[in-house]
């Protein structure tokens, strides 16, 4: 069976085009151009790459963007003061603080310091609470991206058994909530599994939709997946590979080559969920302008 490749690259490009059109409309009507800021603490290579990609995506759709670079040894108090500045800057509609942060900084404290109306990453307790109650809010960027991928490919979700592997606050837990919501994509029966789950293979073998966010390279193998399943791979791992020009290869949490032939739909790594996270951030920033302006901009 040839699976349909669930391409995040394709879906994110479509979303970016739609956003660019929306920004053009805002410009024409003299409205507020969306502005996204990113805070980068220290000089972690992967974080820098992510943040640069976010800034580039902003330029592509016509958003304003600001990169706030801070030293790795910044004190927690000084970082919180920077966040306070962004909270009170009326020009900035939304901002993210790139994780992970240095060990001496409390990530939870930083997350909670972000004004909920500017929390375009969707990690603030207020955002997560609104998501749980199905109120308009910023959805966490990666789960929101996956929802949009499922919708783009018209993947059936109603009444399906959706198994999520991984219970992080960033992906697994919100994903389980979104897949159970009374809407499309949603209305699935959801099983949330994790490192303490017993009989994991039995559970995954019954999944119509398997969303894998466990953070272990090639963890899911063909014998864990039923014929005709939809598999969404959230993992991304840089593995040294001397035979490649780059010196590394990228792997997901799913052993793609052996799992793909069993699937109806499967997302690749790279080019799957990754690009959708940035597209969702842009969508959330556009939503921030709309939620925060007195007169909602007509879509």
Question: What would you note in describing this structure?
Answer:
- With 299 residues, this protein is an alpha/beta fold.
- It folds into two domains: 30-115, Rossmann fold; 141-274, Rossmann fold (3-Layer(aba) Sandwich), CATH 3.40.50.720.
- The protein contains ten helices and eleven strands.
- α2 (45-61) links the parallel β2 and β3.
- α6 (141-152) packs across α10.
- The longest helix is centred in the N-terminal third of the chain and has 21 residues, at 8-28.
- The protein is globular.
- The N and C termini lie far apart (40 Å).
Task: Describe this protein with a few key phrases.
Rossmann fold; globular; 2 domains; single chain; alpha/beta; 299 residues; 11 strands; three-stranded parallel sheet
Write a compact overview of the structure shown.
It contains 10 helices and 11 strands. The protein has helices at residues 8-28, 45-61, 76-87, 107-113, 125-132, 141-152, 172-180, 200-205, 256-259, 273-292, and strands at residues 4-5, 35-41, 64-70, 94-97, 161-165, 189-193, 209-212, 229-233, 237-240, 248-251, 263-266.
Distance between the termini: 40 Å
CATH topology name of the largest domain, in short, is: Rossmann fold
Q: By CATH's scheme, which homologous superfamily of the largest domain applies?
A: NAD(P)-binding Rossmann-like Domain
- Please give the count of helices: 10
Q: Which of globular, elongated, flat, extended, rod-shaped describes the shape?
A: globular
Strands side by side in the biggest sheet: 1-11-8-7-5-6
What is the CATH C-level name of the largest domain?
Answer: Alpha Beta
Largest sheet: 6 strands, parallel
Number of DSSP-assigned strands: 11
Helix % is 25-40%
What's the CATH architecture name of the largest domain?
3-Layer(aba) Sandwich
Q: What order do the helices and strands follow?
A: EHEHEHEHHHEHEHEEEEHEH
- Please state the average pLDDT score: 94
Low-confidence stretches: 294-299
Structure class: alpha/beta
């Amino acid at each position: 069976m040839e699976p349909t490749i669930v391409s995040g690259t394709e879906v994110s490009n479509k979303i970016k085009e739609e956003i660019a059109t929306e920004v053009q409309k805002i410009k024409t009507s003299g409205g507020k151009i969306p502005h996204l800021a990113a805070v980068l603490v220290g000089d972690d290579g992967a974080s820098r790459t992510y943040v640069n990609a976010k800034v580039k995506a902003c330029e592509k759709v016509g958003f304003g963007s600001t990169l706030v670079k801070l030293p790795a040894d910044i004190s927690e108090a000084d970082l919180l003061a920077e966040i306070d500045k962004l909270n009170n800057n009326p020009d900035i509609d939304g901002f993210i603080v790139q994780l992970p942060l240095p060990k001496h900084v409390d990530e939870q404290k930083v997350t909670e310091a972000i004004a909920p109306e500017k929390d375009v990453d969707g990690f603030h307790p207020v955002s997560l609470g609104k998501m749980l109650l199905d109120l308009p809010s910023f959805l966490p960027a990666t789960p929101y991206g996956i929802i949009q991928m499922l919708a783009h490919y018209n993947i059936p979700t109603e009444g399906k058994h959706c198994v999520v592997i991984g219970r992080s606050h960033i992906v697994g837990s919100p994903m389980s909530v979104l897949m159970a919501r009374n809407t499309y994509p949603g209305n699935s029966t959801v099983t949330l599994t994790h490192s303490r789950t017993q009989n994991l293979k039995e559970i995954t073998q019954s999944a119509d939709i398997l969303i894998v966010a466990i953070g272990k390279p090639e963890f899911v193998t063909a014998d864990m997946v039923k014929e005709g399943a939809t598999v969404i791979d959230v993992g991304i791992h840089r593995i040294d590979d001397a035979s490649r020009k780059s010196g590394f290869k990228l792997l997901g949490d799913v052993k793609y080559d052996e799992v793909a032939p069993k699937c109806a739909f499967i997302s690749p790594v790279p080019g799957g969920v990754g690009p959708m996270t940035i597209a969702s951030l842009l969508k959330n920033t556009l939503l921030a302008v709309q939620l925060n302006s007195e007169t909602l901009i007509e879509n």
